[in-house]
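Practice record 12: protein with manganese (II) ion.
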Amino acid sequence: MSSLRLGIDQAYLKDTFDQLAEIGRDPDGRGYQRLAWTEAEREAHRWFRSKAVQLGFSTWTDHAGNSFADFTGGADPSIPALAIGSHLDTVPYGGAFDGGLGVVAALAAGKAIRESGLTLARPLRLAAFTDEEGPRFGTGLLGSKALAGALDMDLIRNARDSTNISLNSAMATSACDLESLPLVQQSLKRFAGYLELHIEQGPRLERSNTRTGAVTAVTGIRQISVYFHGKTNHAGTTPKPERKNALRAASETIVRFSDWVDQTDNLVANPGKILVHPNAANVVPGEAQIDWDMRSPDSALLDQAYAKLAEYAENAAASMSMQATHQLFHDVPPCPLFSPWIQITEQCAHELDLSITRLVSWAGHDAGVLGLVIPSAMIFVPSRDGISHAPEEFSDDAALVDGTQLLGETALSILLKEGPL
Ligand code: GLV
Ligand code: MN
Ligand code: MN
């Protein structure tokens, strides 16, 4: 154990957080627009790299646009590094803390580790991943999936945003080549493991008055488009029995499947996006698409839920003489995190006199992808009112400091440990 050797510079932490919070801020106060592969995300990565250079770290980027910053601390640079960090993109109209906190905390913890002058057994790497959120192209966790070698290149090649821009051309604006993504995995051997601080994004820590969380597992996620193929026709003249209203079948599926989910433990499912064609009040819609996000730490339950969703959709469509089809476009298996590092996190929290509890993450994280291929762990701090993916997302200064101290101490314990992790 490191026994509290680090002094986190709280003014640096706060100032750095405030600097990042200027990037991609909506001018009308509706949160943040640092969507993947936009100028705002690029600006955040440039800012991160320049902050890391100021701290004396050596920066590099990979073919997925992920940014890294290395400090050997006296360790042999050929030894795989411990990475700490998070992501810099946001959901549309998202908050300042999701992802941003983990990157800022990594800079502040990295500064403290460097200034401690301690000789490390392995190098430290600060990490800022791209396209973690995914709503623009349906390609969540792209940066960490590329590193883990877990990308489905067929889906990636076909990905387009709502304005029909292809992922390929959006990546080109960030000087990234989509066809080079499989090369990213070659650097995985340079990573010993990954540690991520994140806001909880739910209400459990706040409601139990607990200052920190040690994440035991990250939920599995499946995102599925369900398509209803009806018949476009006149809203007034089409005889009722002959109407094939795709929106109605989609609505019935939303209600019935959601009722089933409500009765099922250890599973959540969200109908989060709907597209209707031609989307006019006086036209019976011939096509409708609903995008679902379903989550569980239990893969078998995700299999069952996907089958149920397909069944409800097919039944709703058949009752109106139409067809339903579906496509899985984002699939992340549940990921147990590395138990020795969960124990180190708890031990460091005790030394720092921070209350800590174990919990499962129902949000997706880069640690939930990297944890499938390298040792990974996560620390949570409370979110006010449990709100996230919204402009009201907030964690107070005490949570920022608690989380950064715990991140720094846990990282240092791992960095000082000789031999196997
Ligand atoms: C990302 O924050 C997710 O949980 O979808
Ligand atoms: Mn996040
Ligand atoms: Mn998020």
